[in-house]
Amino acid sequence: MKKRGLGALSLTLAVMFICLAAACGDTGTVSSGAPAQDGVQNAPAVTEAETTDDELGDTVPPLDFGGAKLRTIQQGPRVYGFWAGEENGDPINDAAYRRARNAEERLNIEVCETTLVNWDEVSSRLKQSVQSGSDEYDLVLNQIFRSGSDAVGGYMYDWNQIPYVTLPQPWYAKSVQDASIGHNLYLLESDLSSSYAEQTWFILFNGKLTESSGIDGLYDTVTDGKWTADYLYQLGTSLYQDINGDSKADEDDIYGYATSVSDACMTAALFYALGGRMVELDRDTLTVEHVIGGEKNIRCLEKLSSLLYTMPNVYNKLEIGRAGRLQKFTSGRFVFCMCQVGILTDELLRAFDDPYGVLPLPKYDESQGEYYTLVDGGADILTIPATLSNPEMLGAAVEVMSCYSYNYNIPAFMDIGLEQKGTRDEESITMLRNILDSRVIDFGYLYDSGSGWVMSLNGIIKKPDAIASAVEKKMKSVDKYYQKIIEQFTSEG
């Protein structure tokens, strides 16, 4: 099988994150390219581990950590988590089990059972541990947005100071360098986190409804670079059906396109897909530029507004979380539906009789070179407590286990959990692989916290003729928020 190639501010951020988590996707539910920072690449010269022709090897040398314990804490509950206690025949679970055993044998460590707590408790556990100096955890897998708050609070160790972690490797998010503040990197994403795949945004479509409407060749449209916002608008408008004949769009009808004006992360994902960006950080001067007010991004917001508000008969009331949208999709009410990848593993979808497939989020227009997507703010991201006592062991373990995940865990998740169970054709499988390869991370999204732009996007685009003025009106408060972040990162202590 081929494998795919800081005080008061912290309190304020914590409160904002609770609000943000409640407005983003499947948060809390069961279920890319530039060179890395210099510090992360300063691993000793090593020889690569033995691999087969179909695998990539890490560059961690033979090491012996004398049985040191690797201790983790993760948000839960989880269908598939970091730790698996035994093999049970589920290929995804079993890959996680063997990943731990491989690391234990190579590094002479013990991968301990993960401390699993509610999604809203991980941050408090981390802070208590750091403040008490108790050194309880080596690795934290917490929500992306809440982890941003913890980083600003000074509770995390800099990944750039961790040996053996080599960011140019494909098992790390390709745009992860955009998570850095100056020369400090506190948030890291790799294939070690299964939820980074599960909570990726994409479009699920009903093949029976597209076929009956005479629409074919959707995958060719994507491959040819013609899957655009305007094309989705055109199709979504034309596919609406007034099933009950009451001449109004209601819950009994069939909708060409389903989205949500209450799910902030869903909206942000579509904005990024259109090539839109909110803020950029100058890492030399540590200043923030609000590029969202630029001409290009205003155009993206206008296009976004058309897909959420002005499209005739758009269904923009999807519930937050998987259950509501899944129930409506499997009742045959939606042709195109915004979803997260993990929905493909759900038994209700897999029992659905109609053929269905996966598509990336649309581009702004055909001139846009790539398709993009985001991962929901509730997905796990890898962070290190500031009290870490054994950086060499942690770095070696993360590198070895991330590489193993790239070669085995993610393919198991895709090939078994998704491809054989969750999709119905080979072209969908190719689409899914490309969707996962199109994920981006940047400073503006990671450190938004609810005081940045994400939570305001739906309100900003509600009136298409007033988007620029709405951005300008919000600019002062958002800029003040980001300046506090920078000051907190650069302050002493």
Report on the structure:
A four-stranded mixed beta sheet has the order 4-2-5-12. The protein has about 500 residues and is an alpha/beta fold. It starts with 7 loop residues before the first helix and ends with a helix. The chain is built from 17 helices and twelve strands. The protein is globular and about 70 Å long. It folds into two domains: about 10-200 and about 375-420, Periplasmic binding protein-like II (D-Maltodextrin-Binding Protein, domain 2, 3-Layer(aba) Sandwich); about 200-375 and about 455-480, 3-Layer(aba) Sandwich (D-Maltodextrin-Binding Protein, domain 2), CATH 3.40.190. A hairpin with a 4-residue loop joins strand 8 and strand 9.
Average pLDDT confidence is 86
The strand order across the widest sheet is 4-2-5-12
Counting DSSP H or I runs of 4 or more residues, the number of helices is 17
- How many domains would you count in the coordinates? 2
Major β-sheet annotation = 4 strands, mixed
Radius of gyration, in angstroms, nearest whole number: 22 Å
- Low-confidence runs: 1-23, 27-51
- Tell me how many strands there are: 12
Helix content: 25-40%
Secondary-structure arrangement, i.e. CATH architecture of the largest domain:
3-Layer(aba) Sandwich
Q: What is the end-to-end distance?
A: 49 Å
Which range does the strand content fall in? 5-15%
**Which CATH C-level class of the largest domain is it?**
Alpha Beta
Oligomer: single chain
Gross morphology? globular
State the CATH superfamily name of the largest domain. Periplasmic binding protein-like II
- Briefly note the CATH topology name of the largest domain: D-Maltodextrin-Binding Protein, domain 2
Pairing-aware structural class of the strands and helices? Answer: alpha/beta
**What's the order of the H and E elements?**
HEEHEEHEHHEHHHEHEEHHEHEEHHHHH
